[in-house]
């Protein structure tokens, strides 16, 4: 990672920390912000992955995976934008399902890195358990306790963890592999 990418990564992490702090302070406006942020973010990422597939990835090995991920992210983004007018249990289930899905994906990464005898499997396992706990906590608090502000706290906690992960990644030294 170049020095410019490290600086940009740290700036993005600081913006994420500021957004997480704003979400915890202004919980009344948090749900529309979360839906707008995730809707726009997933839609842009999905469209960029679809553009990448149709321009380059369809000729690559594993290019269909890029297509499927692009369609899935585009669909999640459009769905988040469409439920913005229907807050309540839909938002709770949406955020919880995203966290639970992320936990499943991270658990699959744990199995893969463990089979490769990598030393990072424990860190990925902790991330996976964090996503599972967040998803179950959001479902419990939102549906059984009828508190939708818990979704804002859970999302801000996720933003904080992602920001700290970005900062850690920015200061991690990367190896350069030369192919001869």
Q: How would you summarize what this structure contains?
A:
This protein is mainly alpha-helical. The chain is built from six helices and no strands.
Poorly predicted parts: none
Structural class: mainly alpha
How many H/I helical runs? 6
The level of helicity is over 70%
**Distance, first to last CA:** 21 Å
Sketch the topology as an H/E string, one letter per element.
HHHHHH
Per the principal axes of the C-alpha atoms, what is the gross shape? globular
Task: Tell me what portion of residues adopts beta-strand conformation.
Answer: under 5%
The count of strands amounts to 0
Main sheet specs = none
Taking all Cα atoms into account, the compactness measure Rg is 18 Å
What's the rounded overall pLDDT mean?
Answer: 85
How would you characterize this protein structure?
- With 180 residues, the chain is an all-alpha fold.
- The chain has 6 helices and no strands.
- Helix 1 runs antiparallel to helix 6 (149-171).
Task: Show the helix and strand layout.
Blueprint (H helix, E strand, L loop, with lengths): L2 H23 L4 H26 L7 H20 L6 H27 L5 H24 L4 H23 L9
Quick tags:
mainly alpha; globular
């Amino acid at each position: 990672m170049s020095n410019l990418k490290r600086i940009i990564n740290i700036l993005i992490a600081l913006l994420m920390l500021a957004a997480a702090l704003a979400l915890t302070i202004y919980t009344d406006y948090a749900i529309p912000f979360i839906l707008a942020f995730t809707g726009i973010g997933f839609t842009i990422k999905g469209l960029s992955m679809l553009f990448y597939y149709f321009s380059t990835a369809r000729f690559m090995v594993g290019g269909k995976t890029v297509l499927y991920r692009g369609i899935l992210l585009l669909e999640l983004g459009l769905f988040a934008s469409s439920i913005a007018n229907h807050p309540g249990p839909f938002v709770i289930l949406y955020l919880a399902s995203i966290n639970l899905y992320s936990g499943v994906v991270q658990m699959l990464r744990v199995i893969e890195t463990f089979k490769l005898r990598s030393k990072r499997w424990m860190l990925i396992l902790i991330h996976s358990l964090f996503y599972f706990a967040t998803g179950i906590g959001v479902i419990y608090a939102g549906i059984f306790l009828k508190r939708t502000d818990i979704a804002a706290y859970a999302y801000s906690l996720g933003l904080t963890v992602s920001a700290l992960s970005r900062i850690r990644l920015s200061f991690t030294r990367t190896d350069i592999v030369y192919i001869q």
